[in-house]
Amino acid sequence: MNFIDAYSWEHIRFLLMGLGITLKVSIVAIVLSFIAGCLLGIVRYTKLIGVSQLAALFVETIRNLPLLLIIFFTYFALPEIGVKLSVESAAIAALTVFEAAMISEIVRSGLNSIDKGQIEAARSSGLTYIQTLRYIVLPQALRRMVPPMVSQFISLLKDTSLAVVISLAELMHNAQIINGQDANFVIPILLLTAVMYFAVNYSLSLVARRLEARQA
């Protein structure tokens, strides 16, 4: 093991560049998957004939596929039908599709957790179904969804490491490049990489815990 040479500024800067790509891909995927997941969850909750079933089919299909397969599909299969994505765009697309399916279940569970009596009372007071959903159900459900959503976003950030298979220049990819220079760098670089992942994910976990404490 060679900690001194492994932790040169050049190597640390290279890892930080990879961490930057990891965070960039994660943030974009989080925003997109949150929007898509909320829409899918609401559609499934409302039980719209036809549309709800299609959303359920999509969600259940994606949830039962490995993320690695979806990454391969977006990068290698889509170009075969004329949709060519850059490495970064393919990673974002795969993560968004996969996480949207997961988030939709969080949203649907959150909406279903609201007491039906409140919905009936709102409807009987003259509110339409959409108004009831907007003013009564969603505000309460969103508060309950926040902690599990933060946990899901932590998983998403860790899952970006799978994009190393399509050579996305994220943290694990850059760590592997440094490790390839000298076998003595492997343990020091992997330890530093683990610290970087831990620092980001632990910060998000603290946010989740604080939000849970507020709701208790």
TrEMBL record:
On the tree of life, the source organism's domain of life is: Bacteria
GO BP terms: amino acid transport
Q: Which SUPFAM superfamilies match?
A: MetI-like
**Major place of localization?**
membrane
Subcellular localization, as worded in the UniProt entry: Cell membrane
What family does the entry list? Belongs to the binding-protein-dependent transport system permease family.
Protein name according to UniProt: Glutamine ABC transporter permease
Q: Which organism is it from?
A: Paenibacillus rigui
**Lineage from the top down?**
Bacteria, Bacillati, Bacillota, Bacilli, Bacillales
